[in-house]
Write a structure and sequence with these properties.
Distance between the termini: 48 Å
Strand order of the largest sheet: 13-12-11-18-17-16-15-14
Helix content: 25-40%
Structural class: alpha/beta
Radius of gyration: 31 Å
Largest sheet: 8 strands, parallel
């Protein structure tokens, strides 16, 4: 067995033997003992299906026929019941005479396959049928089980599910072989797994009209195929002014043939699209006043598709996806559901319980449930996130089971407050994993549906969402990095996969900090912690890495690479630089810097580049195939709703003043000129952190200025004497071999050629105990200690609780959670699970601990999610992360900023080593960062960078 695995890795070229939500690799480009030849030289194995097979399976077999042609240049024959010596036999148990014959003659063993949901067997069989010497058998437990097996083979030979939707080219090969073995794709963990095309104007709607004439069956055939290739099975169709069943009568017919289950969104009952009420002159959307027309409307809609595979949405919201009128009685809503189920029974001629249904607890509908409204047990309760990726409610572990079970409606895209987010992918899979892991562990596994907006550019998180829905146990937090690498291998090959995966991982992280639509010139700090320039430089560095790879990859990969990697990176990096430039322009205008007007011009240029990037995507990329897909506005928001067009942020221009030398220092926007002494404190420099800081000299007018800086010999100034025309940043650090011990203040003097003489005090702290202090202790820097959650000194587990790091999660480094996430609330005692962070303090006092946690909602709907903090052996303080975030305003701030920050006073009663302890109380709380404010913490969006440890 180990020999086979080694050979398998060698011939497939994979750099890591990991399988996620699929069958392990079984395709080789070279023959080995016992392998099956799919295609070589001038021959290919025949595809063989039975005449009585599902039409959707035969259609997928034709896709496989074409996929083999794309890879090898040779299209195999597709035979109906006609055998050949070498065949790929495709069929569904109970719906294929050929497969049933193989079972009857014991050629294949379908124990564990037959009767299961969407399960696949792939196996090489010798002499399976008269006239067939050898066959690769793909047998499904049901229609989709077979189809998934077909598309699994397609993916493994080198045809990406994204071959159409992202122009990923097939991986060419002269020969293809299947490796001996019995390969089983077991039933999915989540029964229904799908996507919702929503908020689709202007991008997807404009593109579909250009490409297909609208949301017709030609458009949906591409969507159906993608869903099935990704092992999904469920779709909520586009509904902004569209109606799936009404726009094109072939839409539901082909969905059923393909094998895609159709539903309607949370506010569209009984298969009726919302726009149909307008189209057919509906009256009041009010069940109290207009029940007969509504019932007739629903019944006639359901009759159109009663014989199709559906999940029927029940319940009712207000017109236009608005809440019902205030004070709507629970009894009325229960009657609505009762009457809808009577319609289902009448139309289908079978008990309503035999037709899959869901009731979406979206927004205020959840309140009806919480107040006691109930629906029959066979109806799936579709639980929802808050539209920003935080699940609002999950079933209690001790709740009685429901035959309909529970599901989750999740969002990658949203229109609504605090701000639309539609333009670009902002969904790190680490966050998706963390939330959907909760859903999985709390048994909300009947339906997972995700709002994907325009579909593009959500390609990567869509595939992850559907893969994770299939096999959550295969994708742990520790495997997310390898999942991303593997995905990049499948799209781009192995050469640059690790580098591309790193770019993909980081751009999603950066965009997950704050939605681009919320980003503005005030988001990050210009003057504290070099924050704004750091995030901009990080993005520019990422763009540089992406561009290098773009220039190196084969020409045929560039369209796909641009869509999946290059575009989101360069568009986002440009947007960040635009707002950074605007922020600098406004600061420079206030300070009177000569570069103010140049920054205004630069902002104009960056705004134009944003339009140029969108133009390239729309008009030039892939020969203009994706025209309109980047029509979404994203600059110039003034409220939650999108602007009609992108609008450049306001910049300022100033009249040039007389040339004069001016000083700005790190940490403030104040300036000093002429003969003056700096009134604000320059950052302290200490030997424990050994950081450098900076000053900036700038010109207020035209001309060349000279300067000279005088300082003690232990102060290192990188440009002590020079000239400049516009501005110059000068780094300052300390030579500790020469620096005096203790806290000392020295005077720095700057003399300018304009006659200016500006002085400021620089304070140094040379701790003589540095060689006596224990190593690996976080130390203070300018009045604060900042610690990333995953850099704990020790993780203390209890009998029931341990700690898990989610790498690259959140706004800075990682997230840490207690596991299992289903653990009950913990009582605090000395043996309780906690994280310990060792710090060194050279002062005493009551200092404030800032705890950064994710904006997770109390999905238990009890008294809130909690944690506790303490120092040393002092009593712990319990903090409720939910209680102050129940209003629209406080919730909105938490999701807009992707963080909640809680402040807790802690008493440090002695100089020296201390241990800050973070205790698990409730499951589901994700710790991202701890910052101890000792009086020097300054405002910033991410919090200060991590401070150093003693060495």
């Amino acid at each position: 067995m180990m020999k086979r695995i080694f050979l398998l890795i060698l011939i497939t070229g994979l750099n890591n033997y990991c399988v996620f939500a699929g069958i392990k690799p079984f395709i080789s480009k070279k023959p080995i003992n016992g392998s099956f030849c799919i295609s070589e030289k001038q021959k290919s194995a025949t595809l063989l299906v039975s005449k009585n097979e599902w039409p959707g399976v035969i259609r997928a077999a034709k896709d496989l026929q074409d996929d083999i042609r794309k890879v090898t240049g040779r299209a195999p024959e597709l035979n109906i019941d006609q055998t050949t010596p070498m065949a790929i036999i495709i069929g569904t148990i109970g719906s294929s005479k050929i497969i049933d014959q193989l079972i009857k003659t014991n050629k294949i063993n379908v124990k564990g396959i037959s009767g299961s949901w969407e399960t696949t067997l792939i196996e090489i069989v010798k002499n399976p049928l008269p006239g067939v010497d050898k066959a690769l058998v793909i047998a499904g437990s049901d229609k989709r089980g077979t189809i998934y097996g077909i598309y699994e083979l397609s993916y493994q030979i080198g045809v990406s599910p994204w071959y159409y939707w992202a122009d990923v080219p097939p991986k060419k090969s002269n020969a293809l072989y299947a490796i001996p073995g019995r390969y089983v794709n077991a039933a999915p963990a989540v029964k229904y797994r799908g996507i919702f095309l929503n908020d689709e104007a202007p991008a997807l709607s404009g593109w579909s009209k250009k490409e297909f004439g609208g949301f017709n069956h030609k458009f949906y055939e591409k969507v159906f195929e993608l869903i099935l290739r990704l092992k999904g099975n469920y779709l909520w169709p586009a509904m902004w002014g569209s109606a799936f069943n009404d726009d094109d009568k072939m839409n539901p017919v082909l969905a059923d043939e393909y094998g895609v289950v159709i539903g309607t969104s949370h506010h569209e009952p009984l298969t009726r699209a919302h726009d149909e009420w307008r189209r057919y002159n509906g009256g009041k959307w009010n069940y109290e006043k207009n029940p007969n027309q509504l019932k007739s409307f629903w019944e006639s809609g359901l009759r159109r598709v009663a014989d199709k595979e559906q999940i029927i949405t029940v319940g009712m919201r207000g017109d236009g996806d608005e809440p019902m009128t205030e004070g709507t009685a629970t009894a009325l809503l229960e009657k609505i559901v009762k009457d809808q189920r009577e319609i289902i029974t009448k139309v289908t001629k079978k008990p309503a319980a035999q037709t899959p249904q869901l009731w979406a607890l979206y927004k205020e509908v959840q309140e009806y449930y919480d107040k006691g409204m109930r629906v029959p047990d066979d109806v799936t309760l579709l639980l929802c996130d808050d539209n920003w990726g935080n699940i609002r409610k999950l079933p209690a572990l001790n709740e009685a089971s429901r035959t309909g079970g529970y599901g989750v409606y999740y969002h990658f895209d949203y229109v609504g407050g605090p701000r639309n987010y539609k333009w670009i992918n902002t969904n790190p899979i680490q966050k998706v994993w963390e939330q959907m892991n909760l859903a999985y562990e709390y048994n909300a596994n009947q339906i997972w549906i995700v709002n994907v907006g325009d579909l593009k550019p959500m390609e990567f998180p869509i595939e992850f969402f559907l893969d994770y829905a299939w096999a959550p146990d295969d994708i742990s937090a520790e495997k997310l990095k390898q999942y991303t690498i593997n995905w990049c291998i499948k799209q781009f090959g192995t050469t640059y996969a690790a580098q591309i995966a790193n770019i993909l991982d980081h751009y999603a992280k950066y965009n997950g900090r704050i939605k681009p639509e919320l980003l503005n010139e005030n988001t990050y700090s210009l003057v504290n912690y070099k924050e704004f320039e750091t995030v901009v430089n990080d993005y520019k560095s990422l763009e540089g890495q992406a561009r290098i790879i773009y220039s190196k990859i084969p020409e045929q990969l560039r369209d796909a690479y641009y869509q999946l990697i290059m575009h989101p990176v360069e568009a986002s990096a440009n947007l960040y630089e635009l707002y950074y430039t605007v922020a600098k322009n406004r600061l420079y205008a206030k300070q009177g810097r000569i570069l103010t007007n140049e920054l205004s011009k630069k902002a104009d240029s960056l705004f134009k580049r944003d339009a140029d990037i969108s133009h390239f995507y729309n008009k030039i990329l892939a020969g203009g195939k994706w025209d309109h897909m980047m029509d979404q506005t994203h600059i110039g928001y003034t409220n939650w709703q999108q602007p009609e067009q992108n609008t450049i942020p306001k910049t300022y221009k100033i009249e040039y003043a007389k040339s004069k030398l001016a000083l700005a220092i790190e940490g403030t926007d104040s300036i000093w000129t002429d003969k003056s002494h700096v009134s604000k404190g320059f950052p302290l420099i200490d030997n424990l952190s050994n950081q450098s800081h900076y000053i900036e000299l700038f010109n207020t007018g035209k001309g060349i200025l000279k300067y000279e800086i005088k300082a003690p010999d232990y102060i290192i100034i990188d440009q002590q004497k020079a000239s400049f025309e516009t501005e110059k940043r000068i780094k300052i650090k300390v030579d500790w071999a020469k620096a005096p011990l203790g806290i000392k203040t020295c005077l720095i003097e700057i003399n300018g050629s304009d006659g200016s003489k500006i002085t400021f005090n620089l304070q140094t702290k040379h701790n003589k105990l540095i060689n006596k202090v224990e190593t690996n202790l976080f130390v203070s820097q300018n009045g604060y200690i900042s610690i990333e959650a995953s850099n704990y000194s020790k993780a203390i587990n209890s009998k029931a609780i341990s700690w898990k790091t989610i790498p690259n999660y959140g706004k800075t480094l990682s997230g840490v959670i207690p596991v299992p996430v289903t653990a009950p609330t913990q009582n605090l005692d000395k043996n309780a699970a906690h994280l310990a962070y060792d710090v060194y303090l050279d002062s005493v006092g009551i200092y404030t601990l800032h705890t950064y946690v994710s904006p997770t909602i109390d999905f238990s709907n009890t008294d809130g999610l909690k944690y506790a903090v303490s120092v040393d052996d002092q009593p712990a303080t319990i903090v409720n992360t939910s209680i102050d975030y129940k209003t629209e305003d406080t919730w909105g701030r938490s999701v807009a900023n992707s963080i909640k920050v809680f402040k807790t006073p802690l008493n440090f009663d002695k100089v020296g080593k201390h241990t800050i302890k973070y205790w698990m109380v409730s499951p589901g709380v994700v710790l991202q960062k701890l910052v101890l404010d000792m009086g020097g913490l300054k405002p910033s969006f991410l919090g200060p960078p991590e401070t150093v440890k003693t060495k």
